[in-house]
Amino acid sequence: MRNLHHEYLQQRERISLPKKQIGDRSFESRFRASRLYGCSIADHYARTGQSYTHPHPYSLLQRFEQGNRVADVWQEAVLWSKNKHSVLHDADYEVPLENDVLVGQADLVIAGMPVEIKNTVRYQPFAGHILQLMAYCKLLKAPKGFLIYQREFNNSIFEVEANDAIVDAAILEMSNPISAPQSVYEIKPGLCCVESSAEDVFPKEAKRASSRTGIQRGDVVPGTITVKCQYFGHCFPWANNHAKFKVHGTNESLASGEITGTTPDLS
């Protein structure tokens, strides 16, 4: 696949593939292959047709669009090469897949095997991407699939063996969502918000003084939240459509494991 991608880029003339749309999935109650990992609560909101409270920001939508463009070029390369490579005669792109429980749309299906293309900086396969590809294998009854990680100047191609048991276990876990969080301390960094650690979310005592801000060592400084989940407001009604917050506390509230309030971060 890498060679034919190279050949296609060398010839410098792009072909045009008709865009395929899978249709509106707003009220799709079945499980999505691309959402078998992550927060089961957010997946429940999606499958029950809840509205977005925090739609994706412009920057993230641009990132998604870049990913779509990367997938477009691989799809074009495969279809462009069909006359040169016999194995590609059985190749299609944006292939809708479904059964009674699960739905998805594979970037490519070649000789009955799914290919998923990701625009990423990763060098090692992400478990969620592997799970998504395994779900496509299950829907296609394919023995394996391929995961393409396209980076800025190079790429990696990983072969992934089918494993229906892992997919079934993920579906079972998603079908039993845990209760919605009751306080800001139950926010999951990386799922609810973009912070990489809980230390960024919660108020904390300053470890050193700052002449710039006037903060003294031992003062309680607010944590910050930048919302990641599109359904954040259903769990946290105080969000009021804002996407960034400061989380406040006092020495006393920290000692008792509580916060004193949240305010929008307008910086």
Description:
The chain has 8 helices and 11 strands. By secondary structure, the chain is α+β, with helices and mostly antiparallel strands. It has 2 domains: 2-174, Lambda Exonuclease, Chain A, CATH 3.90.320; 184-264, no CATH class. The strands form 3 sheets. Strands 1, 2, 3, 4, 5 and 6 form a 6-stranded mixed β-sheet that branches. The chain starts with a helix and ends with a strand. The model has no long low-confidence stretch (mean pLDDT 90).
Main β-sheet, in a few words? 6 strands, mixed
Query: What is the mean predicted local confidence, pLDDT?
Result: 90
**Secondary-structure-derived class:** alpha+beta
Distance between the termini: 46 Å
Order of helices and strands: HEHHEEEHEEHHEEEHEHE
The CATH topology annotation of the largest domain reads as Lambda Exonuclease, Chain A
CATH class call of the largest domain: Alpha Beta
Q: How much strand?
A: 15-25%
General shape: elongated
- Helix count? 8
How many strand segments? 11
How many distinct folded domains?
Answer: 2
Write the CATH architecture name of the largest domain: Alpha-Beta Complex
Could you list the spans in which at least 5 consecutive residues all have pLDDT below 50? none
- Cα radius of gyration in angstroms: 22 Å
